Amino acid sequence: MAQLTLTALPNIPLIQPGDDLCAIVLKSLAEAGVQLQENDVLIVAQKIVSKAEGRLVRLSDVIPSARALELAEALQKDPRHVEVILQETKEIVRMRPGVIVVEHRLGYVCANAGVDRSNVAPHGAPDDDCLLMLPEAPDRSCAELRRKLREATGVNVGVIVNDSHGRAWRTGTVGVALGAAGVPALLDLRGTPDLFDYPLQVTQVGFADELAAAASLLMGQAAEGRPVIHARGVPYPLREGNAQELIRTKELDLFR
Amino acid sequence: MAQLTLTALPNIPLIQPGDDLCAIVLKSLAEAGVQLQENDVLIVAQKIVSKAEGRLVRLSDVIPSARALELAEALQKDPRHVEVILQETKEIVRMRPGVIVVEHRLGYVCANAGVDRSNVAPHGAPDDDCLLMLPEAPDRSCAELRRKLREATGVNVGVIVNDSHGRAWRTGTVGVALGAAGVPALLDLRGTPDLFDYPLQVTQVGFADELAAAASLLMGQAAEGRPVIHARGVPYPLREGNAQELIRTKELDLFR
């Protein structure tokens, strides 16, 4: 009987710049009585990866450019916040008062280039003076955590860094994979016959996104604070992969 | 320790028009040794709901309109297939050879108005002569299954009908909720403080979509044939809801 079990790892402390996520995850796994197995996947919230990697910017250190000042007025946002968004942005996709949707330098189309004000509080900085950017290279963050976990346990697990993104045509955010290692981000079912041997029309599944969404459900968005989810029973063999597989290039995008 | 367990219900037979999904689900639950509890959710694949509701059209019975003939040439599709898509369509959103993205009469923006050729084989019809449309009213399908399950077991469960949709900016399909009953489709976290009492910026979560994606992962897309998933441990109290909550109206859509 196929079963997928997602467990929120307990007692993950507030993460500070420089923290060793691998050690923290191993400690929590031990407390939860979970022994890693091949084909397990760990899904880690972007926020704690960004924090551990020190991807914080103090608003008071930001000097907005002329362009940021101009856009900030149209957007009704803090110009320093807009400046940091622009620094993480390849191209602005849509803009309305209060909303800026961009192509992030890593290729994701998302709101505010993933630059967030909530849930941020590094050592000593007041809450409302800081912004948190996405990890420098989330696929690399995943690969590093995967490597360290293998070194510590001898087990190959998949690792996903997830975040919540809005969608073009649907309300609400859903979890998506920003980074992945050791999991197929996109599952290619091209040519797989269906129950009646009729070739499947829908051929590529956003596997890591579906797992990211499942984990997001359990993480909660607010005070619950469950930033690491352990998944067991993933019904596909794991393989190498990265979240860049999930990015639709501008040339193939019908909606820009 | 928060845990979400998804179980693919075993031995679901091939569904035929007129089949009683409630009886089939109850039989499978019994075989799996699962006793329904309050706050459990059942996620049911659109395909079997559509089949049970007889939402099949025989291609040989379809007479394409002039418009379908014209579009079929541009789309390089069977004009009869295009005709059925148009009958389910409120508005064409984008069109390229091989691809038609529409606003479905129920409001979803999706490829081919959800009209699918794969996995369809009603009594006596050859596989490649049939199309399957989305359920007439998926929220109603969910509400009915929920009501019947409550009558049979005394337990209030949530029900979601899911399907796989493409995304504007990301490759691969992910599971989304076409219908829902007894679950919050959209979870409104507006005003919920985060760990540092900073009001959350991202305020609405596509809860039923995240659960639909999780289930989709376990369903597989092809020969596995696991069309009903039981979810236990959903970390929010269930309430009334419907999947129309998840539809962004055209007026609020920045991408049409």
Describe the 3D structure:
The structure is a homodimer of 256-residue chains. Chain A has 256 residues and is α+β, with helices and mostly antiparallel strands. Chain A has two domains: 5-54 and 135-252, 60s Ribosomal Protein L30, Chain: A, CATH 3.30.1330; 56-132, CofE-like fold, CATH 3.90.1660. Helices cover 26% and strands 23% of the residues of chain A. The first copy, chain A, contains six helices and twelve strands. Chain A has helices spanning 21-32, 46-52, 66-75, 79-87, 138-153, 207-219; strands spanning 3-8, 41-45, 56-58, 89-96, 99-104, 109-111, 130-132, 158-165, 174-181, 187-188, 204-205, 228-232. Chain A has a five-stranded mixed β-sheet. In chain A, helix 3 (66-75) packs across helix 4 (79-87). The longest helix of chain A is centred in the middle third of the chain and has 16 residues, at 138-153. Chain A is globular. Chain A starts with a strand and ends in a 24-residue tail after the last strand. The model of chain A has no long low-confidence stretch (mean pLDDT 89).
